[in-house]
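Posting here for the record, re: adenosine-5'-diphosphate.
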Amino acid sequence: MTSVLELHDVTRSYGSPPTQALRGIDLRVDEGEFVAIVGPSGSGKSTLLNLIGTLDRPSAGEVLIAGERVHDLSDARLSAVRAHMIGFVFQQFHLSDGQTTVDNVGSGLLYTGINRALRRQRAREALTSVGLGHRLDHKPRQLSGGERQRVAIARAIVRRPALLLADEPTGSLDSVSGETVVQLLRELNDAGTTIVLITHDRELAERLPRRVAIRDGLIVSDSADPALADRLTAGAVA
Ligand code: ADP
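Prediction output follows.
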């Protein structure tokens, strides 16, 4: 199996005296997986998201994205890795209000050297793949919340990134729209997209194939590694 993401004993502290937001995270995500990282407020989810998204570097330990060691990369190379390897989906969509859906999605291909006509073509294909082939010329304000999030997902996948990283993607949606977004993510995963979804919503996480629970900056359970909880307990006793 090829790993898309590896974290080895990753810690991240802030400030002085230091607050340890992450206290030694080991995690491997392979190609084709769909992993929910779930934890309550303050558990370290945003910190972890920033490290996985290469928006931040660890205080100690290693982060590898598609085999590339983040620590070793220059800022320029890191930006390139981020742009090519990772598609981001945020709770608040972050679409440009003045642009049509096609141009919003096509903006995910800026600076790739792909010309505008081809960007629009690829954007139309991505929008069709998220079920919005009939909303190509709409502006975000003409769309429902669920549709906006689907546009944001189309923008995230238009470069065919190695990893789709979703931060509370249903957090701003009603339950019906949230359901269609989860269903879409499942379909993208079935078609081969590797997804890491970060959420505080246990119910949402329960429905995803693999669940990693984080608390106080540590992984406390991983459904792909049922023996982890026993090892943690043994470690705490030892
Ligand atoms: P979550 O996203 O799960 O709510 P965070 O990653 O935001 O958790 O925070 C984890 C811990 O790190 C919290 O105790 C938080 O107060 C602390 N923290 C996060 N960011 C900073 C920062 N920039 N400076 C100081 N402490 C921070």
